[in-house]
Amino acid sequence: xxxxxxxxxxxxxxNPTGAFGGFxxxxxxxxxxxSFSAPTNTGTSGLFGATQNKGFGFGTSFGTGTGTGLGxxxxxxxxFGGFxxxxxxxxLGSGLFSQPAQTPAQSNQLINTASALSAPTLLGDERDxxxxxxxxxxxxxxxxxxxxxxxxxxxxxxxxxxxxxxxAVGYSLMPNNKDEDGLVVLxxxxxxxxxxxxxxxxxxxxxxxxxxxxxxTVNVEGVKTMPDDQTEVIIYxxxxxxxxxxxxxxxxxxxxxxxxxNIKSSLQQLGVSFSMARTELxxxxxxxxxxxxxxxxxxxxxxxxxxxxxxxxxLIPVPLVGFKELLRRLKVQDQMTKQHQTRLxxxxxxxxxxxxxxxxxxxxxxxxxxxxxxxxxRTLQVLIKQEIQxxxxxxxxxxxxxxxxxxxxxxxELNAPTQFKGRLNELMSQIRMQNHFGAVRAEERxxxxxxxxxxxxxxxxxxxxxLSHLISIIxxxxxxxxxxEQELNESIPRGVVFS
Length: 499
Known about the structure:
The termini are far apart. Helices cover 47% and strands 11% of the residues. The protein is of the alpha+beta class.
């Protein structure tokens, strides 16, 4: 009952399938250890051997093929799983985007569909034309059954039929993780808060599902909210070898293990609704996807979608069939928008906090500068007093006398009113005026309405006219006073003295 991720060397009877049996059948005896190592016996198919289904998973099937080539179709997920091919298959199969060769049953299906849409013979009269239009409407809608012949079963119309009109092509981001990174996505039908609060219990439960091997460690790479109260958890497994080295279990290996029926049922009991390996696509796989249009998608529309791809290196066209798929993508887009807005809010808060810290730091820098200037002056005064005490009792030396003469000369030049002192005083006055006017302009800014400005001008003009009229009256009165004084002086006889 060993839980092996590879075959153990040796020969013997086949290992019976247990609760944590291998990832395939092996002809070796059961080993006591849980190992992700590659098998050494060429007679085994390997628990994680060559037969692996690395489906290109989007959830519900979009293609109808049963081969392993390109996986299990398109539906509820946006991620890209592995894309490996099985060694038992000689081609890429009839998976998601492949176009398999038509079988006789498919040919009959197309003939029956064409008969139901164009020429039904169910009633044998003019009502068959009405029935044909009804069948066309059902085919366009992508649901219902098309009756066309009494002896043949009706055609089942699905959204994958080529006549369905509710189709579009979107774009999804291709993963850039390598298989060696070992990232596997598990989608839980639980809220993110519940997952985060019980993350340790979840890790322990996953470790038990993996067999409880002490050489394996379950690590959570990230937790992300999804629509409909679902949560995406990305995990990887680290395997430690006896010599002390460690490595990550490949993503396709871990995904293949999770897809085993007994393991899958255990994961469903934990609330896992979907799982996939997050690995990048090889150039050959991308080419295969782009060359073959998905089932039910017009090749012309598919080619146009490839031409309109905004970033072919990172995005890949994905068919959208039906309103449910469109609604799901809309919910995912809304969820991502909320996450971006939350991140922007966090960044905005960080920027505000940094701005406050910057303002506080600038104030402290200015304060420290003032302290430095004050300390510099105090230090200079201490040095002056120390130098005076040190030189006390000594005669003035020649260099000191020369320095004193130079200082006196500079002082005289500065004190001269017509030279530097006057210019300095003038410059200081201009600086003070500029600072004053600049502060006034910065603090007081007024805006006068055009009509109000016109009224003010009119009022000032009237005042000016009134002042001019008043000045003219005063001038006339002065002339009259001068005439009166002149007449009085002439009318009084000379020599008359008033006592």
